[in-house]
Every structure is written in C-alpha cells, then in structure tokens.
Amino acid sequence: MADNIKRVLVKLSGEALAAPDGYWLYAQTLAHLATDLAETTGQGFELAIVIGGGNIVRGARMSQAGWIDRPTADSMGMLATVMNSLALETALNAAGVPARTMSAVSMPTICETYARQPALHHLDRGQVVLIAGGTGNPFFTTDTAAVLRAAELRCDAVLKATQVDGVYSADPKSDPTATRYDRLTHDEAIARDLKVMDMAAFALARENRLKVIVGSVHAPSSVAAILSGASPSTMVAP
Ligand SMILES: Nc1ncnc2c1ncn2[C@@H]1O[C@H](COP(=O)(O)OP(=O)(O)O)[C@@H](O)[C@H]1O
Ligand SMILES: O=c1ccn([C@@H]2O[C@H](COP(=O)(O)OP(=O)(O)O)[C@@H](O)[C@H]2O)c(=O)[nH]1
C-alpha cells in the first residue's frame, strides 16, 4: 500500500474471533487470523492490535436492560477485551509471531499494564502489542482506544478491519445502491455523515491527522491483503 505506512494499529471487532455459528471464541478462527497477521508482519509491517469485546459484552446494550448500570457493564466489556487479547496472543505466539498483551486496566498477575514507553519499546523490537482493556474508562469504545493508542504509539494508520470492505455512500447493509469510496478526507466523511467509526474516535483521528483505513475482516479479504492493496478498502486521510 502506498502512503508510507509501516506501523499500523489494527482494530478488530470482538466478533472477528467468533465461530461461524456465533460461539464467542473459536480456535480455527483464531488460527486463521494469526496466519493472516503473521503474513502481515512478514511483509514488514509493525503491528499494534486493539480487539473489541462485542462477542462477549457490549456495555451500552447490556445496561439498557436496566438491572446493571452502565459503568459496571462497561467494566465487564473491558474485561472481555482482555480475554480476547489473551486468546489472540496465544494464537499469534503459536504462529511464530512474538506478541504480548498490555492492559489499560491493571492486572499484573495476568498481563503487563499498558504504558506508552514500554509499548513503544516492544514495537521497536518487532513484537506485536495487543492493547487490551480499551481506554480503561467507561463510556468509551475500542474504536476510540484504537485511535488514541495509534496516536500515542506513532502509528502511521489505523486499520479498522470490520464487516464491510470500506466506507460507502450509505450503510451498504441497508442500501444496496451504496457505492464504496477508495479515498476521502476526514472532513468529507464527517460532512456526509458516513459511519466510519464512532464519532469520538473519528474526531480524535481528524484532530491528529491520523489515516484510517477501513476494510473487511472476512475472507477473501485479509489484513495482509488490505495493507498490500490486494483487497479493497477505503483510505480516509487528510
Ligand atoms: N457509510 C458507511 N460505510 C460503511 N459501513 C457503514 C456505513 N454506515 C454504516 N455502516 C455500518 O458500520 C458497520 C461497521 O461498524 P461497527 O459496527 O462499528 O463495526 P465493528 O463492530 O467492527 O466495530 C458495518 O457493518 C456497516 O453496516
Ligand atoms: O475504552 C473502552 C473500551 C471498551 N469499553 C467496553 O467494552 C465493550 C466492548 O468494546 P466494543 O464495543 O468497542 O467492542 P467491539 O464492538 O469492537 O467488539 C464496550 O461495549 C464497552 O462496554 C469501555 O467501557 N471502554
């Protein structure tokens, strides 16, 4: 891919780890993803990864039921991202890719606590850093954590690997006439109200002039193929 991209923060939805039947975690899905990420590092990309927790808990939805408050449900969501990160760390190490989980929520008997300098050190040494626990605060999402950490860790871009292969003129799931953009600016995405990622995350990306690439996590697309330009994607750049 052009644009001088080397260090990338890959944002994966928690659902990217689930089984085809929806079960929350599936060894084959993890192994497939790890192979893709191994290929990506083999191409020379440096990777930080933020995984969501939506395959287990989404705090906003859980608290809507009324029996639990939002901050508590969000705490459970943040813990879910730690479980997902540990699962992908295991799969990456099995695929021969050195990887370590760092959590924004301190749990030193389980993994390192996220801190910027050690995370930069790991990346500089060629290790994949899995950033768990989101931002560490309720009322945020892992999209926001992805942009925040990408800015902190001097990443050249955020790759949001999601359900669709780019940013469209309208939601492609509800509008079959929607067309995909190859490239657009942050301002254009905001002015056209295109749902690239949640607004807090996207505003932070715009403020930091951070490139956001949107592509599909589903085969035949892959992280390696998106970054090498072999799979379709949309580049949002200043
Ligand atoms: N203009 C748009 N272009 C692309 N996708 C859109 C657009 N508007 C809404 N979407 C929807 O956004 C979804 C991806 O965002 P999100 O649900 O936040 O993903 P994730 O779970 O990967 O964080 C897609 O499944 C798509 O249906
Ligand atoms: O900084 C953060 C990031 C995540 N979460 C919680 O963790 C859940 C899982 O993250 P997300 O919904 O972003 O996961 P994804 O949809 O990407 O799988 C969220 O719904 C929130 O409840 C949070 O409270 N603060």
TrEMBL record:
Keywords: ATP-binding, Cytoplasm, Kinase, Nucleotide-binding, Pyrimidine biosynthesis, Transferase. Inhibited by UTP. Pathway: Pyrimidine metabolism; CTP biosynthesis via de novo pathway; UDP from UMP (UMPK route): step 1/1. Residues 6-215 form the Aspartate/glutamate/uridylate kinase domain. It catalyses: UMP + ATP = UDP + ADP. InterPro entries: AceGlu_kinase-like_sf, Asp/Glu/Uridylate_kinase, Uridylate_kinase, Uridylate_kinase_bac. One of its GO terms (molecular function) is ATP binding. Its EC number is 2.7.4.22. It comes from the Bacteria. One of its GO terms (biological process) is 'de novo' CTP biosynthetic process. It is found in: Cytoplasm. Homohexamer. Catalyzes the reversible phosphorylation of UMP to UDP. This is Uridylate kinase. It comes from Enterovirga rhinocerotis. The gene is pyrH.
